[in-house]
Amino acid sequence: MLERGILAYNIACAVGAAAILSSSALAQPRTPLAADPQTVDASVRPGDDFYAYANGVWLKTTPLPTGRANLDTTAMLRDETPPRVQVLIEEAARDALAGRANRVGDFYASWMDVAAIEAKGLKPIADELAVIAAIRDRQALSAHLGRSLRLDDGTNSKTDGLLGVWIHQGFHDGDRYVPHLVQGGLGLSNAGDYLAADKSVVRDRYRAHVATILKLAGLDETAARAERVLALETAIAATHAPAGHNDDVFNTDNTWRRADFAAKAPGMDWAVYLKAAKLDGQDAFVVWQPTAVTGASALAQSQPVEAWRDYLAFHLIKRSLGVLPKAFAEEEAAYLGRPLGDRQQQAIAATTAALGQDIGRLYVARYFPPQSKAAAVAMAENLRAAFRARLAKAVWMSPATRDAAIAKLDALNIGVGYPDRWIDYSGLEVRRDDAYGNLRRAEAFAYDRELAKLSQPVDPGEWSSLLPQRVGAIINFSPNALQFSAAILQPPYFDPQGDAATNYGSAGAGMAHEISHSFDELGNIYDAKGRLGKWWTDEDLARFRAATAPLAAQYAAYCPQPDLCVNPDKVLGEGIGDLAGVLVAYDAYVLSLGGEPDVIKDGLTGDQRFFLSFARRWRRLQTDAALRQQIVVEIHAPGRYRASVVRNNDAWARAYDVKPGDKLYLPPEARPRIW
């Protein structure tokens, strides 16, 4: 998904508390993707349907688990990884119980001690509620809003505070971090829930929920308080930028100086606010949604103080549900219409949010040793070299654009497995008997750590949002960096002791795909240092689109059902990435051989194993409804067509002796020459 209007591109979403498959299903992804030639469907000609040839046996013999609409290799890895993390955290908790100092274990144990949480009741939150109740004027309100400024994680998906702050490099200065202010403050999912006439039922349920939460907290006149909270949040929602605002990053490129806030956004006491937020020493800010900042400031002055007190009390409680008595969580579950969540998974999620890289250290020590990282780094550098050779020959690029692209590739920071510099959590106090205090101290630690970056140079190698134990990867256009987690660099995608052809065809193709986004229509507005500014010419863009038109035509012809066809406008960007992935990864695979021919294994040449591995990246079981939904909403084509991009690779045609008359055959002159 796109994050921050193409500041970052999320390759594979982070793992949560996923449902666990049966042991047989969990075992399947450990098998290398190109292993065992008997798993090919020999009844299918490779040149007619390479996806079915490579995956037919698996598709016919693997059941779709009950209740699942989809099952693919990445999903199976996502199911496999949380139990590993759970074991590591539980081991840490046992170590802590045995008296061995362990932040991870103590934090987790504090969340699991529900008896202690129940016994404390509302005492942990009482002081903060009293501070809110004492707010009497705009200055005190401004100070409290500043103190409650929340970190935004780079997605602007659910900022808890009225505003969120994201510490990131500036749009036009690749060397300095800048505070980015983003809109937030809503309890419902989006502004439309407050403003749309047909959402009255949603608002009624929310109003009742607010009243119940406040009643559980011991407040009086909760119906009136809930009405004020809803009215204030409705006013906040009316100030939010419209849907789609963030899709164009140039809309968010708004630099305000500290002195600008009083003039552009009157109402808030900004000097007090910024001092309370520890941002009074900053001169420049990036304001992502100016209407929200201006609107929030005006509301700080125009809305009744009692409404703000009710609002702040409610959101403080909501933010603390996991470490308050069970009645609060039960009300939350009833409001959401789902069963009460599993306490163990909640504790794991909270521990991960607070100490994610500490858990990551445990994970890589067991599952991704230094030799695994060394092998992945070597692959990444071969991919870089192969892509550099491709860029040097990209005919649609003007000479100046080609030079800029190569400079960007050379500067690209490719992180694999885990960060070179881990977060040092030694300054975070964790107490086994204080779940609430641990939560608040972890929030403060993370906030102060982010603000400390404002005095430091930008670090392109920082892993800010991807944890090693999460199956995923991310490309940041600003700064110019890529990261692939240890959890995704495992079999079947990557095996440091395994076959090079298989590794390059699977993990290598995935990495090359993501590298290519730095040089396509997604990445062409960020330079080698991640600064905003188009580095293609209009003529480059026109030639690029002409070069990609044949690939778009291929996708337009793909119809899995008579009434269901792929929309090339939706999937072309990812299709171009898939093509780059298979082309560049194949070149890198050849580079890895050092000029020597690969051996034949299981009756397959190296080239055949490479392409089999690539096709098996995309195998997926899914219901008809899921297929239809994918074609309507996703930017990725169905797996069959992602695998079929091999038809544009000369080496694939040679490896499988694909000839005129085969359904996937394309004459060499018809194969798109993009990279």
Question: What is the fold's blueprint, element by element?
Answer:
Blueprint: E1 2-3, E2 8-10, H1 23-27, H2 50-61, E3 70-72, H3 73-97, H4 103-112, H5 114-120, H6 123-133, H7 138-147, E4 150-151, E5 163-169, E6 177-183, H8 191-195, H9 200-216, H10 222-239, E7 255-257, H11 260-264, H12 270-276, E8 284-287, H13 290-302, H14 305-319, H15 326-336, H16 343-367, H17 370-392, H18 399-411, E9 413-417, H19 435-452, E10 473-476, E11 481-485, H20 500-516, H21 538-556, H22 568-592, H23 606-617, E12 620-622, H24 624-633, H25 639-643, H26 650-655
Can you put this structure into words, describing what you see?
With 675 residues, the protein is α/β, with parallel strands linked by helices. The chain has 26 helices and twelve strands. The protein has a five-stranded mixed β-sheet. A hairpin with a 4-residue loop joins strand 10 (473-476) and strand 11 (481-485). Helix 2 packs across helix 23 and helix 10 packs antiparallel against helix 13. The protein is globular. The protein starts with a strand and ends in a 20-residue tail after the last helix.
Q: Give unreliable regions as ranges.
A: 1-6, 9-29
Shape: globular
Number of helices: 26
* Major sheet details: 5 strands, mixed
In terms of DSSP E residues, the strand content is 5-15%
Helical coverage, percent range: 40-55%
- Computed Rg: 27 Å
Class by SSE composition: alpha/beta
- Give the strand tally: 12
Report, as a whole number of angstroms, the end-to-end distance.
24 Å
Overall average residue pLDDT: 92
Q: Order of strands side by side in the largest beta sheet?
A: 1-2-10-11-9
